[in-house]
Amino acid sequence: MNRSVADTARILGVDGEQMKAWAWTFKDHLSGRANPGKGRPRKFTDSDVLALIYVCQYRDLLDAHTPILQEPPDDLDETCRHGILLIDGYVEGYLALARNYRESADALLDSALKSGEPRDGGYPVLFAYRHTLELYLKIIGAIDEHTHSLKECVRLVEKRHGHRIPSPAREWIIELDEIDPAGTAFRYADEQGRTMKHAEHWLDFVQFKFAMTRVFTMLDFAVPDGTRMGRIDPTRI
Q: Which runs of E-coded beta strand occur in the chain?
């Protein structure tokens, strides 16, 4: 009998992504249809399922005696989707790391909104976007000064490229700096790190996502070649 990923995952009590990871890791012990190649559906025979049941039963024991940082597998290729290859902290592509953080921030915000309890994820969301903004600005401005001030980063970016970040993006960035100038208020729930005069503020996550999308779209558009910030088109924000 041939079973789908969903059917096999249900038998093993794991999710589909875990199933795919095991199918790739233990492909030498499975039939060819368990790893059929890109664009083709996986199918698991009864023998495949029995082998994976054995894996499921003893995998925790192996993981408990395995270091976090491991030697790359000999057969590592683009089909491996359950981990990443770390190469001396190198990230390929200008602004690639900043964009990765932005995608993570977006996922956190979407999850918070979907949960119906956004306050539970409020600080992680704010920290993720603030850190992303800081990273964007430091890369674009080639800033090597030790500062976590978004306001200072804005100044250095504008000085380097000779253009002022336009409204309302500039004001939105400065707002985050005003409530968290040291980058610690959302990271450590540091009340001393907040400087705004009034302690209570309403943050509408839907509007916040709109604002952050506009800011990052503007920053992405401003540096199309990764070398020089062009004149910013206000219609892009």
A: none
- The arrangement of secondary structure in 1-88, i.e. its CATH architecture, is Orthogonal Bundle (1.10)
- Tell me how far apart the alpha carbons of residues 82 and 172 are, in angstroms, rounded to a whole number: 37
Q: 3-class DSSP state for residue 3? A: strand
pLDDT tens digits for range 204-223: 999 999 999 999 998 888 76
Q: Tell me the three state secondary structure of residue 236.
A: helix
Domain boundaries, the chain: 1-88, 96-236
Residue range 93-102, pLDDT digits in tens? 778 889 999 9
Closest C-alpha to 218, from 157, 177, 160: 157
Measured between alpha carbons, how far is 209 from 55 in angstroms, rounded to an integer?
A: 42
| DSSP line for 66-121 | S-SS-PPPTT--TT--S-----TT---STTHHHHHHHHHHHHHHHHHHHHT-GGGG
What does residue 2 show for φ and ψ, rounded to 5 degrees?
A: -100, 130
Structure tokens given for 222: 């401003």
Residues, the chain = 237
